[in-house]
Amino acid sequence: MNSTRRNFLRSLGVSVAGLGLSGSALAHEELPSGTTKELADDQVLFVGDNIAIANTEHGKVRGFILRDIHTFLGIPYGADTSGKNRFMPPKKPAKWSDVKPALWWGNTAPQIMDNRYANTYASFVDHWNYDDVSEDCLRINVWSPALDTQKRPVLVWLHGGGYTNGNAIEQDGYHGENLARLGNMVFCSLNHRLGPLGYSQLSAAGGHAASGNVGNLDMVLALEWVKNNIANFGGDPNNVTIMGQSGGGSKVTALMNMPSAKGLFHKAVVLSGGSLAGANKEYAEKLGLKVMEEAGLQKGEIEKLQALSWREYIDVANRATEKMAEEAKKMGIARGGFSPVADGEYLNGGAFFADKKDFSSDIPLMLCSTFNEQSPSRTDASLEKLSMEDVMEKIKPRFGDKSAEIVDAYSKNFPKARPIEIWSMILSNRKNAVSIADAKVSQGGAAVYVAWYGWQPPLFDGRIRAFHCDDICFWFYNTDLMLTHTGGGKRPRALSEKMAKSLLSFMKTGQPNGGISTWKAYTKTNGETMILDDQPALVNNPDGEARKSLA
Question: What is the structure's pLDDT at 15?
Fold first, then answer.
């Protein structure tokens, strides 16, 4: 067996014997994901005056049909957020009388685009997609097998990029066509306000009380749009799953702790992210006052902030953040900036999942992180030759005097792992994911399922490893759309089918036992974790001894 095909967990010296490996993969045609022999040589795109027309509460929209999937791009779910709407809760869009074309993506939310493609390797691997940028960005995309009354399960995708960057189509792997076809479901993705325009807490400066959370209120409005309109697209408003990766994962956990989101979704999936509290309210209010100071304005002069261009405002806000850096450290805040604020009104003011009576207790949760969220040697082959002593020195800036203890603990937990693999796994540790799982289980109610993605792409001489974002295209059955994440072909497609079918099962039933039949719910006692590799395996607390050293 090639080293690229080995089960990564076994290669690190952790036994998975007798743990119920999944059955053999289903047979696959040698065609890209989402393509069938019947479709291969026939017309696949249909667009015209009377094709793919759906009604919404605001007016009719016209999309197109691609490979039998009805596709609608850039449907307005909210009004323009510029001018007097800046820093304010979102409003519904004005109704329209003509049929609105929904054939192209909506504008990307304002963010700094300078040098976005400066890193050649990152641009190659992720081949990001960015379109026009404006504050008129509240748009949603929909993929559906049919515009009928079948009431299919619905997935709403929340993009990554922290709360600062990204959009709904940042990667081709975000597309919903293939999963919609595979699972007979409806896939949605959306843009919303980001960064200072979405999360400036200006209440102490005379602004609206919700100003620190309007980016998340955009998502709530989008979910309300889904509730009110998705039946017209063949979806079931009473079976909605929200899913996000990295910063999108934190958006999911935040929505689970926003009172206004109650009843708008029924299951949740967090990939390589998530949070257990909102931003400190006192810090956020001080930062808002610093923004006013940096802009040369007095309290109450919010309309003058609204009159700035979006780029001018972001620059002002970022300078304010820099000037607040020392104050943030004194307040015990490691990372300042703009994110949802724990104001106690729009977002839970305390620890997430602490209230057993909160609506989030009824929401099943699936969590996944990757073995190598960070892979230091991806573009530097010399790092493959590091010694364990070198690794200790590399992690000292982060872990200080505990560095030797941590390296020793990981080496014992994963006895066959090479030093570079140990370094990567320490940097990519599961502490956050396990903390969220433990908090949600302690809350009681719906089940929690945990995965650890370890599939190693055969790219960059094997040094790219199971990196941050790599699992997204597997969940969405898009491995052949993201060749720079997978290499393409039947091997990643086989795992993708298992993962996608497990996701679809979770959406439909709250249990991910679809493509992988041995997935048990997580408990704090056993730490049940599904290792996602060529042959998935359920393992109890696979990194437990190593993780203890991080406490």
Answer: 55
Residues 131-150 have pLDDT tens digits of 799 999 999 999 999 999 99
The two tokens of residue 194 are: 């980001």
Alpha-carbon gap, residue 203 to 509, rounded angstroms: 42
Tally of CB atoms within 10 A around 539: 21
> Which residues are CB-contacts of 118 (< 8 A; sequence separation ≥ 6)?
none
Q: Are residues 301 and 388 in the same domain?
A: no
Residue 369 lies in a domain: no
Sign of CA dihedral 9, 12, 15, 17: positive
Residues 168 and 105 in one domain: yes
Closest Cα partner for 161 from 273, 55, 263, 51?
273
Q: Do 301 and 240 share a structural domain? A: no
> Tens digit of pLDDT for each residue in 215-254?
999 999 999 999 999 999 999 999 999 999 999 999 999 9
Range of the domain at 111: 52-278+346-363
Among 13, 19, 16, 3, smallest CA distance to 546 is for 13
**Cα–Cα distance for residue pair 294/304, rounded to 1 Å:** 13
Instruction: Note the pLDDT of residue 156.
Output: 98
In a domain, 158, yes or no: yes
Q: pLDDT grade, residue 508 (50/70/90)?
A: very high
Find out whether 135 and 197 touch, Cβ atoms under 8 Å: yes
Say whether pLDDT at 27 is over 70. no
Report the alpha-carbon distance of residue 29 to residue 43 in Å, rounded. Answer: 20
Q: Report how many helices (DSSP H) and strands (DSSP E) the chain contains, helices first.
A: 19, 15
User: Which secondary structure element, helix H or strand E, spans residue 366, and what is its range?
Assistant: strand 365-370
- Domain total for the chain? 3
504 and 408 share one domain: yes
Residue pair 233/226 in contact (Cβ under 8 Å)? The answer is no
Amino acid in the structure at residue 113: M
